[in-house]
Amino acid sequence: MMTFLGTRGEIDPSTRRHRRHSALMMRRGAARVMIDCGADWLNLLDSVSPTAIVLTHAHPDHAYGLARGAPCPVYATSKTLALLRRFLIRDARRIAARTAWEIDGIGFEAFAVEHSTRAPAVGYRIVARRRCLFYAPDVAAIRDRRAALKDVHLYVGDGASIRRPIIRRRGHVLIGHASILEQLGWCREAGIRQAVFTHCGSQIVRGNGRRIGALIRRLGMEFGIDAGLAYDGLSVCFG
Fold this sequence. Notes:
Elements lengths: L1 E5 L16 E6 L2 E5 L16 E3 L5 H4 L10 E4 H6 L8 E4 L5 E3 L2 E9 L6 E8 L2 E5 L5 E2 L2 H5 L4 E5 L7 E5 L2 E5 L2 H11 L3 E5 L3 H4 L3 H14 L3 E4 L5 E2 L3
Parallel strand pairs: 3-4, 4-5, 5-6, 10-12, 12-15, 15-16
Antiparallel strand pairs: 1-2, 1-17, 2-3, 7-8, 8-9, 8-11, 9-10, 13-14
């Protein structure tokens, strides 16, 4: 089972449906693995009681809830942990891209994604009971997309923008956010049949939820994909 604890991007507007920064809780047996922990989780971790925390990158809306430490091990790349070195994280565990590892029967493999040069990000292939999802809440491009999305059953992606990417270039590197439309194209190319979008931007958070939800479903149908928007508290059976 997975639950979206938060679905709001790094924006000021918030609503009941998109109140907290993007975070996902994976549950399997006694394990409660929280993926990302933004600034608005500071002092609130006891309310969700994670047994482990996994970070995609060091931006405030994904990691600053750990400024006063964590009640459990924190898994992240060396670059992310170096950017958070002033935080009071007692049990920091370094992970490497393209190396598979497990937390209580939940498998993880990090893939580099283009999003930020100052806070390099990864997305995660997550496997539980032969089901595989790919989680990339902040992504402009996936470096090794074919391998990252191979045999994925569910794609959980970046909802910062619906049709137009929010991207600029620094040399050959993309910075920012791919649109939902572009990510649906990635899913179709990889044969993924289900997608959910989180890390919602102002266009979604400020808009009419019913109309925007219908638009995402319609765009998904055009690609042959069952697509929808995540909201805070949404639970999805997985693994």
